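We treat protein structure as text, and this decision shapes the records that our systems exchange. We quote a single record here, exactly as it is kept in our systems:
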Amino acid sequence: MKQTIPSSILAINNLATDEKVGIYARLIPEWIFDEFGIDRASFCKDGQRVIDFQCKAHSRSVEITVKRAASDQDPMLYLNMADTLYQQLHVLLVVFNDMDSKRYNIDVDQAGNPTFLGTSSRNITEEIAAMEAGLGPGQIRKGLRAFKNAVPIFEDFIIGMGHDLFLIEPLAYHNAILFEKYGFNYTQGKQEMQKIHDEFQPGGRLHDALNNDNPFRHQEAWKTVRGRSWAIHDGILGYKFSGAQMYKRVGHHADVNTFPDAIW
């Protein structure tokens, strides 16, 4: 691996502002600048800044926020990455929002308090509407289906840092299945994913727990990735889905598939 940039987020963050921002800008897909008319030099559109980099000196993390317009409530692209204790790159969260799609307020409860995307509390009415619109748990809008094309950009960035892999944490079941599709493997959680698949089969514990009286656990939910993910989000496992961690090795597809012939 030919190293062309510092080998850690900490080292990049300790560079001069223009230098570190120039490095992190490599992570923004070129089509975003072209399609939405964002100036590559100033990160502005119509004279207003729409791209923000949170990369303070001495910090081991970076946040990149890209808005389609400065007045937008939500980002079109959000990326949060950090160093691990072993100097590997850990993608904590990456989101591509379709800003032309309807917004579902699953991120706040009916009193206006944050739900942290349904992990601390829930807005059931909005979640049902999001589910019926084909979204997965944690989604406030439809995605741009851009993650597949973003993986090579991450890989190029990793090569520039002198590494050969990066880590990512699936926040929900459907995220893990999506990451499998794009070549990721597990550092932990693979056996749990296989167990979940087995228990959703007819006669399994999770399959038997499905019930049409609960919209998140309807009897056909086991057949699809999103159906399973909503049932898991609703607590069908008996515990929160957490602990899975995955990685992508540069230029390698792991061929992991814990949901054979998956239907979304």
User: Anything to note?
Assistant: The mean pLDDT is 96. Residues 102-140 form one domain. The longest strand covers residues 89-96. The two ends are 36 Å apart (CA to CA).
